[in-house]
């Protein structure tokens, strides 16, 4: 649960994306599909990643 003062801006939501406009949602979705949002590398697992 989050709380705070309302920001009084429009909100557009689709799947995991929350933006202000449908155009921003479309762009975020395109960026995601194209792999432009980056990634977080996995930490090496010393037990299972044995050479």
Question: How would you portray this structure in words?
Answer:
This protein has 51 residues and is α+β, with helices and mostly antiparallel strands. The chain has a domain at 9-36. Helices cover 24% and strands 12% of the residues. The protein is built from one helix and two strands, in the order ββα.
List its traits.
single chain; 1 helix; alpha+beta; 51 residues; two-stranded antiparallel ribbon
Spatial strand sequence of the major β-sheet: 1-2
* Helix residue percentage: 10-25%
**Span of the ends, CA to CA:** 44 Å
Note poorly predicted spans: none
Counted by DSSP, the helix tally is 1
Shape: flat
Largest sheet: 2 strands, antiparallel
Topology:
Blueprint: E1 12-14, E2 17-19, H1 22-33
Antiparallel strand pairs: 1-2
Quick description:
By secondary structure, the chain is of the alpha+beta class.
């Amino acid at each position: 649960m989050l709380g705070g003062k309302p920001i009084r801006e429009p909100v557009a939501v689709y799947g995991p994306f929350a933006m202000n406009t449908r155009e921003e949602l479309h762009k975020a979705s395109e960026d995601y599909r194209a792999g432009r949002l980056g990634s977080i590398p996995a930490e090496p697992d010393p037990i299972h990643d044995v050479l």
